[in-house]
Design goal:
Number of helices: 27
Number of domains: 5
Protein name: Arf-GAP domain-containing protein
GO molecular function: GTPase activator activity; small GTPase binding; zinc ion binding
Organism: Steinernema glaseri
Shape: elongated
Strand order of the largest sheet: 2-1-3
Strand content: under 5%
Helix content: 40-55%
GO cellular component, one term: presynapse
Pfam family, one: Ank
């Protein structure tokens, strides 16, 4: 690696470890924490003492130089934010708790990780982007899409080509490496029954085809490498390397040995069970290799500040995606000593090889042939063998364990590129028919899943009851709103009729004739009251500006109307100290918009009751937000009063809260229904305030 490289988690210089699935480099202190995360979060490997292929090492180097760490620290790289300086530790900080808390937050909780944009909310969109991106050499973009949740197993509907097929066709080796790290299957066929290996060969990308074939046998090759120190030569069509035990271990592997019954049960496993067992053994081998590399690189002169605690798990950390039963079985693999663990690996390799070549089960003969040479093993040799598993085996001057010639093996020579796990499944189904008994592990795992399902059903029942209560309350409130709307419509109609009656009673100004000054006054009210005087002998506004008479006739052509001294109809709805006018001209439009938003809230609650809110919450949030904005701008700003502004702001705030509830990754039905209920209450309050002037 580049000498200028720094640790992705604390900035320490010259990191000696790499996280394969995160594509970052870390120092020894941060590696101390990564080892406890588990391979499902961070598959750690030593740069100096680990087992690497040149393609994997090139991928890690390229991605880290391209800024792969920015994906996992996306929210911390904002230059205007000071959060990075406050949150991210430095090299001199203690491992526990400072670095440990940051690393767990970064990789386990994914708190700082790049989040999907509004255009990338659909998983199908992400998958299509991934499918297109692997055509190019933009590996960093592929990693970003995978971090956002794109599926490496996505296949186009027409030809069923996966991203791995596309990368193989376009000769993109780094894309192939990255996809395989995230679980892409090189043996998966497309609609034309072609695997990624076949596609690479058809395009004359022979080096890439050879690498894809190695990836196809990655698990069994890793098991053979752990035992023998070398891998099978797939270029010679040798896909399995099964070593032979020597000494006392050979007797244990015989048909009458102490574990003969357990070994025979290996053939009864289904393909899925054997696949799970192989994966668990692969992870345990990875853990043991990390321990060996750690001991080789960590000497007494190298101190690590780990605070008051010093603990690294001596078994595989639990994976929340797996059942508790399987996690316990995975952890028990750490109790196996070298001989027992090697025996288990040989059993898995032997059974995998038998199923790949579709060989018959030999119940009478030993599964592993006796060695070509006999050796005496002493107690001292046994101790030495426990340190180096390869000393337990004898290859008899053979580099590879060749397959015996048989009609079955010859007939399958042309199909070596097909997925061997498919053959496992077929063989497993046959074995399950012959051996229908259920193991205790299967029973315990099924029982645990049943308990989890029952707990989920109980939670859903409680949630459904809560939603029903909220729905009932909102339905009652909507009924009340409808009644209020009908009542307000009636009041508006009555007010309109009253105004028309007043207009009909008032004479037209053109009908007022010039009258003499001594003509009788049409009202028996004092002059100051008629003209708006203050009652204290002071003339009102009209009296102060009253024109003088000339020649016994008034110069006023149009005196004040007959009903001038009466209050306007709108004032009847205003309190003595209220500053809220009666907005009758906006009432009809507001009532119409209120009915629309009531229907929108009802649709949201119906989806919540049917557990469909996760798929439709964004649509509901956008619809309701637009309706609230439309209501908010219905009354022009110059005409709004202080009270209306307060209630309007509360209504907009309630809409924002509902939008936030609908925009989260995991929708909380109870919280969303409560937010919808609060919004409906504020809309009702706003409608009542505008139409009647009352709260």
């Amino acid at each position: 690696m580049d000498s200028a490289s720094i640790c992705a988690d604390c900035g320490a210089k010259d990191p000696e470890w790499a996280s394969l699935n995160r594509c970052v480099l870390v120092c020894s202190e941060c590696c101390y924490v990564h080892r406890n995360l588990g391979s499902h979060l961070s598959r750690i490997r030593s740069l100096k003492h680990g087992v690497w292929s040149k393609e994997q090492l090139e991928l890690i180097r390229f991605l880290y130089a391209s800024g792969s760490n920015n994906i996992w620290e996306h929210s911390l790289i904002d230059p205007t934010s000071s959060n990075k300086a406050k949150i991210k530790p430095i090299a001199s900080d203690a491992v526990i708790p400072t670095k440990e808390n940051f690393i767990k937050t970064k990789y386990s909780q994914l708190l700082f990780t790049l989040k999907p944009s509004r255009d990338e909310t659909s998983l199908d969109d992400l998958n299509r982007q991934l499918w297109s991106c692997v055509r190019t050499d933009r590996v960093e973009t592929t990693l970003r899409l995978l971090a956002l949740g794109a599926d490496v197993h996505y296949a186009d509907p027409e030809k069923q080509n996966t991203p791995l097929h596309v990368a193989a066709k376009e000769n993109q080796p780094l894309q192939v490496e990255l996809l395989s790290l995230y679980g892409a299957d090189p043996a998966r066929p497309n609609a034309g029954d072609l695997t990624a290996v076949d596609v690479a060969r058809l395009e004359n990308h022979n080096d890439l085809a050879a690498r894809l074939e190695e990836i196809q046998f990655e698990v069994t090759d890793r098991l053979s490498l752990f035992l023998c120190g070398r891998r099978p030569d797939h270029s010679r069509q040798v896909h399995f390397l099964v070593p032979e035990l020597v000494g006392s271990f050979q007797q244990r592997m015989g048909p009458t040995g102490e574990i003969a019954k357990v070994r025979r049960e290996m053939t009864t496993l289904s393909g899925k069970q054997l696949e799970k067992l192989s994966q668990d053994i692969y992870d345990e081998i990875d853990r043991r290799d990390v321990v060996r590399a750690w001991n080789a690189s960590h000497n007494s002169s190298q101190t690590i500040d780990i605070g008051s605690d010093q603990f690294v798990a001596v078994f595989l950390p639990p994976n929340p995606a797996l059942s508790a039963t399987r996690n316990q079985l995975r952890q028990k693999l750490a109790k196996y000593d070298t001989a027992d663990f090697a025996t288990l690996i040989i059993d898995v390799l032997t059974e995998s090889k038998r199923r790949f070549y579709d060989l018959p089960v030999k119940n009478e003969d030993p599964v592993v042939a006796p060695p070509s040479k006999t050796r005496d093993s002493s107690k001292a040799n046994s101790t030495q063998n426990s340190e180096n598993p390869s000393l337990l085996f004898d290859d008899g001057n053979r580099d590879y364990d060749e397959v015996a010639e048989s009609p079955r093996s010859k007939s399958r020579t042309s199909n070596l590129g097909k997925r061997w796990s498919a053959n496992q499944s077929e063989s497993g189904e046959k074995n399950q028919t012959l051996h229908p008994e259920v193991t205790l592990d299967d029973y315990l795992e099924l029982k645990e899943k049943l308990n989890e399902s029952n707990a989920k059903v109980r939670d859903l029942t409680i949630s459904n009851s809560t939603i029903l209560r909220h729905l009932s309350s909102i339905q009652e409130m909507m009924t009340e709103l409808k009644n209020d709307n009908i009542k307000m419509h009636a009041e508006l109609k009555s007010q309109k009729d009253h105004n028309l009656a007043l207009l009909r009673r008032n004479p037209s100004p053109t009908t007022h004739l010039h009258s003499p000054a001594n003509a009788p006054v049409p009202f028996a009210k004092p002059r100051e009251e008629f003209y708006g005087g203050d009652g204290n002998g002071m003339p009102g506004a009209w009296d102060a500006h009253a024109p003088k008479t000339f020649g016994g006739y008034s110069t006023v052509r149009n005196p004040p109307p007959v009903g001038y001294g009466q209050p306007r109809p709108v004032e009847k709805y205003r309190g003595a100290t209220s500053d809220i006018p009666f907005f009758s001209k906006y009432a009809d439009a507001l009532i119409k918009e209120t009915e629309i938003i009531t229907d929108a809230i009802r649709n949201l609650l119906t989806d919540a009751q049917c557990n469909m809110l996760a798929d439709t919450s964004i649509k509901h949030a956008i619809t309701i937000s637009r309706l609230i904005q439309k209501i908010a701008v219905l009354i022009p700003e110059p005409e709004r009063t202080r009270r209306i502004e307060v209630v309007m702001n509360r209504m907009v705030e309630a809409s924002n809260v509902l939008t936030d509830c609908c925009s989260t990754e995991f929708i909380n039905n109870d919280k969303t229904c409560s937010a919808a209920y609060d919004l409906a209450k504020t809309v009702k309050e706003y409608l009542k305030l505008v139409t009647t002037g009352q709260d």
